[in-house]
Every structure is written in C-alpha cells, then in structure tokens.
C-alpha cells in the first residue's frame, strides 16, 4: 500500500504540472489487466475511480468483486462478437479502429437505449502488429463513424512503439497532438474531440509534455510485482 501511495503521488504531481502548463484537466486511468480485485479496489481510497481493462473475459470475471464506483474503460483490442458482453459494463471504449466494430458498438448501444463514448485508436507509427487506424487516414475514419447513432466520438487514443528513442517518441506524440487539435478545430458533428489518450508507464512523462489529456498507467502505479 505504501508503494502504491507513493507511486500515485509521484504521477499526480507530474500530472498537476502538465495540467498547469497546458491549461486542461488530465485523467489518470489505472491499467488493471492481470491485477486482482484485491489489488485494484484500494485505488478508490486514493480517489482513483477510472480503471482500464484490456480483455473482455478478464473484466467479466473481476466485475462482481470490484468497487461499484469504478468507471471502467475498455482499452484493449475488441472483437465484434464481444461487444454485447461489455456494452452495459463500461463507460468508454478506447480502441475503435474499424467501421465494422464502430457499427456493432452503435447497434448494441442502441439496443440498450444508450450512447457509448468511444475513442478512435490511431496507429502513430504504423505498426502492423498493433491495432489502430493508420495515422494518415485517421481524420477520414473519425468523420465516417461520427454519424452513427449509439456512439459519441470523444477523441483519440494511441499506443506508442516500444522504443527508448525519446526523440522518435516525442515526434509521434507531437503528431498525435497536432491531429487532435486539427480535428477539434473542424467541429465535426457527433465528435466532441475532448480526450487525447496517450502515455503509458514507460512514456507517460513525454506524453504529458505533449498535451495528453488521459494517461493509461499500470506498472508505474502497481509496480511489477509478478
């Protein structure tokens, strides 16, 4: 618990500095994949209620034992046939990267008489093994899914390549921020463009410097521990 408290304080201090620099609020999503409810629930004691899960089955298994006050974000790749299982369990889906998935989310949300907040996942470095819309066509994709009933496009999400080349990461973060600002300025119907979700345990400091509004952090919070 002591290390968790210390880690949270350190991250929140850096978030506060970035928030003052950029003039916007920054949300911390605790990435809880592979973590047990006993590890996750203490987050609420520190005022952290946003958690991110990657796998549908793991989320479903944990839910009965999770604090009911948590806001759950689906941050991993999502198969169309799994949407129906989480549509009324999560507050946001951050990994929308293809029309068929967006259409299924819309369809399932409408069946529940709700509107699901989504982020468009962008591939900043064009890595084929990862999800995400190609950076060059991200704007086109955002506009294509914006008219769908049952979803609300809240912004963009990106997973950076696993590299220690900070100059390259800085360039990719800057590209994402520019794309975010460009699309925000276009005032697209059905798109609020409020969230830029980028920055994980190994690169969140650089993400903060480049205007991230949402961090997705796991190891930097909980430690390796397993």
Outline the secondary-structure elements.
Layout: H1 2-22, E1 27-31, H2 37-40, E2 50-53, H3 56-62, E3 71-74, H4 83-86, E4 92-96, H5 99-111, E5 116-123, E6 133-134, H6 138-145, E7 151-158, H7 166-185, E8 191-197, H8 204-209, E9 214-217, H9 219-222
Parallel strand pairs: 1-2, 1-9, 2-3, 3-4, 4-5, 5-6, 5-7, 7-8
Description:
The protein is about 40% helix and about 20% strand. By secondary structure, it is α/β, with parallel strands linked by helices. Strands 1, 2, 3, 4, 5, 6, 7, 8 and 9 form a nine-stranded parallel β-sheet that branches. The radius of gyration is 17 Å and the shape is globular. About 40% of the residues are buried.
Gist?
Helices cover 38% and strands 21% of the residues.
The span between the termini is: 16 Å
Q: DSSP helix count?
A: 9
Report the sheet-strand fraction: 15-25%
Order of helices and strands: HEHEHEHEHEEHEHEHEH
Structural class: alpha/beta
Radius of gyration: 17 Å
Molecular shape: globular
Oligomer: single chain
Got a strand count? 9
Instruction: Give start-end ranges of low-pLDDT stretches.
Output: none
Q: Kindly report the average pLDDT value.
A: 96
- CATH class category name: Alpha Beta
Main sheet specs = 9 strands, parallel
């Amino acid at each position: 618990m002591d290390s968790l408290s210390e880690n949270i304080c350190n991250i929140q201090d850096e978030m506060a500095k970035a928030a003052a620099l950029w003039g916007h609020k920054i949300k911390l999503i605790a990435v809880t994949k592979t973590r047990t409810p006993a590890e996750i629930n203490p987050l609420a004691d520190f005022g952290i209620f946003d958690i991110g899960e990657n796998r549908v089955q793991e989320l479903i298994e944990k839910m009965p034992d999770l604090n009911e006050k948590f806001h759950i974000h689906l941050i991993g790749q999502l198969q169309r046939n799994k949407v129906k299982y989480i549509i009324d369990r999560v507050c946001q889906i951050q990994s929308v990267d293809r029309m068929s998935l967006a259409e299924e989310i819309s369809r399932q949300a409408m069946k529940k008489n709700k509107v699901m907040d989504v982020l468009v996942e962008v591939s900043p470095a064009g890595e084929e093994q990862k999800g995400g819309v190609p950076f060059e066509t991200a704007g086109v994709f955002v506009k294509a899914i914006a008219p769908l009933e049952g979803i609300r496009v809240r912004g963009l999400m990106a997973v950076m390549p696993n590299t220690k080349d900070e100059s390259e990461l800085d360039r990719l973060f800057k590209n994402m921020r520019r794309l975010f600002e460009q699309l925000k300025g276009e005032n697209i119907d059905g798109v609020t463009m409020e969230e830029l979700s980028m920055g994980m345990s190994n690169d969140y400091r650089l993400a903060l410097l480049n205007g991230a509004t949402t961090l997705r952090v796991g190891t930097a919070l909980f430690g390796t521990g397993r």
